[in-house]
Amino acid sequence: MDFSLISNTFITIFTTDVFFYCILGVVAGMVIGTLPGLSATMGIAILTPLTFWLEPAQGMAVLLGIYNSAIWAGGISAILINTPGTPASIAQTFDGYYMVTQGKVKKALNMNTIYSVIGGLIGTVVLIVFSFPVAEFALKFGPPEMFAMALFGLSMMIGVSGGSVFKGLLAGALGLLVSTIGMDPMTGALRFTFGNINMLSGIEFVVVMVGMFGVGEVLYQISKEARKNAQIVSNTAEAFPTAKETKASVIPTLVCGAISAVIGAVPGTGGDIAAIICWQQTKNFSKHPEEFGKGAVNGLAVTSCANNAVIGGAMTTMMTLGIPGDGVTAVLIGSLMMYGMQPGPMMFVEKPEFVYNVMGLMVVGYIMILILGLLSTKFASLILKVPQEVIWVIVVGFCILGSYAVNNSMFDVYVMFAAGFVGFLCKRCEVPLGPFVLALLLGNLCESNFRRALSMSLGDYSIFLTRPITVVLLILTVLSLVLPAIGQLRKKSKAAK
């Protein structure tokens, strides 16, 4: 590590117009992330062509600002209106919106900002210090490891089922069925497309997410008049977590940040997967698991941290190996190549100043997010004072815009409304949406890698028991299912005594 290059990087950022472009990217990312359906991937893909006339450092300042800021800002709408701004913000709805209904509006928004920045900085430290080791570890993930990772994620289905495990498993099974729509990942055969060419590539996850959490929430509020203005009044006395809550969140946040950075380094994963896994594992080890899903401070802290910590891991894999860790880094690879940079180990040798510039921009970007986030809390919470009817119209409008923008297809808009109706029925029948979303997200990943692994071993199932990483992940899967049950039995035995 060249400390002279690091110091020169920060001097360059703060003394040139790169700083201005970084601010521009952070503000643009805040707008994109807050609006439901407009993901960080979509925002960067749309704005990348506008950066080609800039210098590489300036262009990356804009794109990294959007990337970092959009993931943080996605939590704003997830917390305030129970509609994730980006897919990575899904887990923040588990506890964030409940805190809002309890009057802890400013506290929830400030926590989103603070823990997002902490997670982002943890991921950036991983990028700076552990670039090569983490990327080398992620490169060992083949189909068996990816299957075990997906299965581990699916084991969280019970944890996000709330009070009814049966309803949660039912929703998860439906999500797995929907994930099979489209072309077979191995043979290319059509499955459940009913002759509709729009379904060849399957059902878009972002479209379903926007419909279920956006339109579904609006329909539910209309039918139940769930969000009374008198019910959601900001408690200004609780703008930040208490010292006790902060102390209890330190270890879970640091552990989940480190785990999420490693998850982000694995190609094909993302903030949504990391946040759900971290939320469930924190719940498993918590002394008060019954609080999770009902406004738990630790729940919001670890999810806000996890979905941002993933960025550092994804950037590590992208920069050192030239392999995209997620959709955003796939777009960034194209941007780097347009700037004349070739992501990979040689970039660290031939362009070390550019590599350190990227690392410096991520640190500066999170400092800006911290300042902007804390200053905008008061203004962001004003959305709760807007009449319900206006909020409903705006949310549905952006849901339509976001769904259409995914593929420029009206079919996705129809799917979004259908998903919204299903989400509404699920909320009325108290069927948790978490398992459905989790199964839809991981179903195809789990199936395709399971079948690829068996192809590698010519049908020999022992391949899953002879690879160390796979075995560890399978053990973690079993533990995540068994430990909560053991905990419940212990509580029952104590209560009986």
Describe this structure in words.
With 497 residues, the chain is mostly helical. It is 71% helix and 1% strand. The chain is built from 20 helices and 2 strands. It has helices at 3-15, 18-34, 40-47, 56-81, 96-101, 105-129, 131-139, 143-154, 165-179, 205-224, 243-265, 271-285, 297-321, 327-338, 345-350, 352-380, 388-407, 410-428, 434-456, 468-496; strands at residues 182-183, 190-191. The protein has a two-stranded antiparallel ribbon. Helix 3 (40-47) runs antiparallel to helix 4 (56-81), helix 4 (56-81) packs antiparallel against helix 14 (327-338) and helix 10 (205-224) runs antiparallel to helix 17 (388-407). The longest helix has 29 residues, at 352-380. It is globular and about 65 Å long. The model is unreliable at 226-232 (pLDDT under 50).
